[in-house]
Design brief:
about 25% helix; globular; Alpha-Beta Plaits; Ribosomal Protein S5, domain 2; 2 domains; 12 strands; 7 helices
């Protein structure tokens, strides 16, 4: 182990859950270059794990299990520490060990969740006692999806995603059994939004909302994504035809496809069939929304 990284056996441990969008509507492009959206986000039982420990110098040192990810000042985790330092006028010298399970470029919010987890962890470790609303405001200075992860429940997000309203208890959708499939390529959210305004409904695929008691599952970013990656549109059609599947749509900006299963459906069946059809290098996960 590097001398710059301490023993983490007694570190502060926090989970950073993935998210998915039950619906994602793009309402138009704003004057600031971002897009106005209306989305409902829920968390998944899929989680990264972060371990944090105070240091006795002025450094912020990040170590990540995924060697392809940057670990310097351009990582959202480090940016979260810096944002909290600016907000509180304090210095947080900390080592952070990030164990990744959420794939990158997948539309599952892994990097945003990691950043929010660090804000929540430091809030507790440093006894800052910042309320959720204030911590979410700090999160909004780093990225659009990060404020959602400050809260412990499903939320409706508007603006560019930073206007977060927790869903009232009586309206929270039930925990849903889901299956995720990510092919062997990533999609940058910035690319998907940039091409939204010039995309149409690529022929042969369905984009209509899939109705549930708590709302319609629909994703406006499917239009540019399916136009560029028709494999994902074909995958949606195929998933919807599988036994035990209630709904399927792109998760966020992709490239993950989200499938909602009937209660009691064995996810191993659809997992095996999807890997056989779309390649064994695909990433899969099955579990529930939370």
């Amino acid at each position: 182990m590097s001398e710059a990284f301490p023993d983490m056996s007694d570190a502060f441990v926090i989970a950073a859950p993935a998210k998915t969008n039950l619906w994602l509507r793009v309402l138009g492009k704003r004057d600031d270059g971002f897009h106005e959206i209306d989305t409902r986000m829920v968390k998944l039982g899929l989680e990264d794990t972060l371990r944090l420990k105070w240091r006795d110098d002025d450094e912020v040192i990040l170590r990540c299990s995924d060697s392809t990810l940057p670990t310097g000042e351009d990582n959202l985790v480090v940016k979260a520490v810096r944002a909290l330092e600016r907000h509180t006028d304090k210095v947080f010298s900390v080592s952070i060990d990030l164990e990744k399970r959420i794939p990158s470029g997948a539309g599952l919010g892994g990097g945003s969740s990691d950043a929010a987890a660090v804000l929540r962890a430091l809030n507790e470790m440093a006894s800052l006692f910042l309320p959720e609303e204030e911590l979410a405001a700090v999160a909004a200075t780093i990225g659009s999806d990060i404020p959602f992860f400050i809260y412990d429940r499903p939320c409706d997000c508007r603006g560019r995603g930073e206007l977060v309203v927790p869903v009232p208890e009586r309206e929270i959708p039930p925990s849903l059994p889901v299956f995720l499939f990510k092919p062997g390529f990533e999609i940058a959210a910035s690319w998907a939004y940039r091409h939204w305004s010039t995309s149409g409904e690529y022929a042969g695929f369905t984009y209509a909302a899939q109705s549930f008691p708590w709302g319609g599952m629909v994703n406006d970013l499917e239009r540019p994504v399916f136009e560029k990656f028709p494999l994902l549109g074909e995958m949606k059609t195929w998933l919807l035809a599988q036994p035990g599947v209630r709904a399927a749509l792109l998760s966020g900006s992709g490239s993950t496809m989200l499938t909602v299963l009937d209660e009691g459906t064995d996810a191993t069946d659809v997992t095996s069939a999807a890997l056989a059809r779309y390649g064994e290098n695909g990433w899969t996960w099955s579990g529930r929304t939370v």
